Amino acid sequence: MTDQAERGEPRHRSRLLLHVCCAPCSTACIERLASEYQVVLFWYNPNITDRDEHGRRLREARRYARIVGVELIEGPHDTDRWEAAVEGLLNEPEGGRRCDACFRLRLQVAAEAARERGIEQLTTTLTLGPHKPLAKVLAAAEQALEGGPVTYLPIDFKKQAGFERSLQLSRKHNLYRQDFCGCEPSRRR
User: Fold this and answer.
1) Mean pLDDT computed over every residue of the chain
2) H/E run at residue 74
């Protein structure tokens, strides 16, 4: 047989851009993806309008990327763009239309980053959280990636006890774990 693995050669893994909402959520996602993909992290979270909170989460994402030896690309902290995307939706309930617009924006910018770097697939850690249904993230991804060369890999990271695994890995690496998604409306609820 001519299979690379049987010849002892490393198997080629295609690059995958993983949009990261926070270091704790990235843990189980990276672990699940690493055997099939060369994971490249993308930090883009303009919904975290509190600069201190944004900085704290970004530092943890950087630290965890170093721990697991993966590249981390940092997107801009353009809260103005997020505020424009969710204009008129700040009083929506958690999980409502504000979240849809937020997911769409974050995945759109992630797709732009993937395209610029020649990465053909992307997915997001957003599906790990117990309050973020796969269907909502998929709908946002479909709108954000419409007609582009980047495709979305639809993984529900909650499956196979993903959230529980992220808790274990977060404790193991002593990662800061927040108790709200990042936007001010989610903090108030």
Assistant:
1) 92
2) strand 71-74
